Amino acid sequence: MLSLFESLYTKTYAAIVLALISLVFVGCASSNTSSQSNANETQLPPIVATVNDRPVSTKLYEMYLKNGREELGLDPKTEEGRTKIEQLREGIVSELIDRTLIAQEAERRAVLISPEKMSQAEQRTVQQFGGEQKYDAYLAEHHLSRDEYRETIKSEIYGELMREELRKNLTVTDEEIKNYYEAHKSEPQFQQAERVTASHILINARPNLIVQQLQREKNLSSEALAKAAREEMEKRRKLAEALRGRAAAGADFAALARQHSEDPSSREQGGSLGTFARNSHTRAFDDAAFALKPGQVSAVVQTEYGFHVIKLTATDAARAQTLSEATPEIRRLLLAGREAAKLTESLKEIRRKAKVRINDPFRFGALKNEFPAN
Q1: CA–CA separation, 60 and 142 (whole Å)
Q2: If you compute the radius of gyration of the chain from its CA atoms, what whole number of angstroms results?
Q3: Which DSSP string do the residues of 287-318 spell out, in sequence order?
Q4: What stretches in the chain show pLDDT beneath 50?
Q5: What is the rounded distance in angstroms from the CA atom of residue 273 to the CA atom of residue 112?
Q6: 203-225 burial code (b ≥16 CB/10 A, e <16)
Q7: Cα-Cα-Cα-Cα dihedral sign, residues 86, 87, 88, 91
Q8: Residue 15's pLDDT is what?
Q9: Distances from the Cα of 187 to the Cαs of 174, 191, 219, 331, in angstroms?
Q10: Beta strand 191-192 with 319-320: parallel, antiparallel or unpaired?
Q11: Contact by Cβ (8 Å): 201, 260
């Protein structure tokens, strides 16, 4: 899960908390964590804080702290490690408070989670952990029941629903998009790399697969098998060379591809690969394709997939995107910025009005001033 309002935190521990929470669902779900969950931690009270009289469980705090320390490799024996652990502690408590506040705000607005949405989210979580058995083992390790962990899943759904709720009336005008484009069009994100439009004919020729096929079909000694494999590779190369000769002489390339190409993804489209930039295929293939001029047919190109004959249809030189091309990305960026600002302001106001009492062991850093002890 991602931090909903990480912009409220200092950059240092925002990054740590963000990485941590992502790891809980991806890395930690499949890792073999140690059985001594908090052997070096002082015995903590069962509640981190109460948020408008709703308790925040210490079990979740301990889960995030343990996984964070392990996955981020924080060493409490070093000064840097101790500093980051303190930042991590503060970030976790702040995040848990925020999630509780967001859930309460969603409930206040009658933004409800349907049973179907909850069930689907829980099933996705189980799958992310690698199945029912691993999921239950993870919960047992952290002394959590399914009902307790379900609250964590619900908090993520509430966050998604509240983002949808708050972004409803957000808009971006064409003038704003144009102004942003003029100010940023030279930046890398709005530069379009050189691209080509091409088709190919593939004759499959993977040496290991040829050897396996010959082993299945013929009882050959190792020396004879190697010789037969070389001969089969040469046979396929000659087929590719013959097809290349016909294409270079003016034969219908698309018809040749439909009849002879062994690339199932492009064969029925006459070998068309569409328009692509460099690094879309193997280096040998891209080097050959980008060296051609429109209408030219390449020499036979060998890659790990076999022998290719490439025909170039068009080139598109590197250039800045047009306003029309850049508009979807600019609209997304501007809306995302406004959404983040609105979420931040909303949470600041919610936090300001909230009745939050943090238990003494968890009053780290700036939280001491934001939520003074009663």
Answers
A1: 8
A2: 30
A3: HHHHH--TT-BPPPEEETTEEEEEEEEEEE--
A4: 1-40
A5: 46
A6: bebeeeebbeebeeeeeeeeeeb
A7: positive
A8: 41
A9: 20, 7, 61, 16
A10: antiparallel
A11: yes
Cβ 42 vs Cβ 76: under 8 Å: no
Please state the length of the chain: 374
* pLDDT tens sequence across 188-242: 999 999 999 999 999 999 999 999 888 888 878 888 999 999 999 999 999 999 9
Helices (H) and strands (E) in the chain, counts: 14, 9
**How many Cα neighbours within 13 Å face the side chain of 50?**
8
Q: Please state, as a whole number, how many other Cβ atoms lie within 10 Å of the Cβ of residue 112.
A: 11
Q: How far apart are the C-alpha atoms of 350 and 101, rounded to whole Å?
A: 7
The amino acid at 54:
R
The per-residue pLDDT for 361 is 92
pLDDT of residue 114: 93
Record the tokens describing residue 292, joined without a space.
């051609």
Sign of CA dihedral 79, 81, 83, 89: negative
pLDDT of 3 reads 39
Which tokens sit at 234? 């040469």
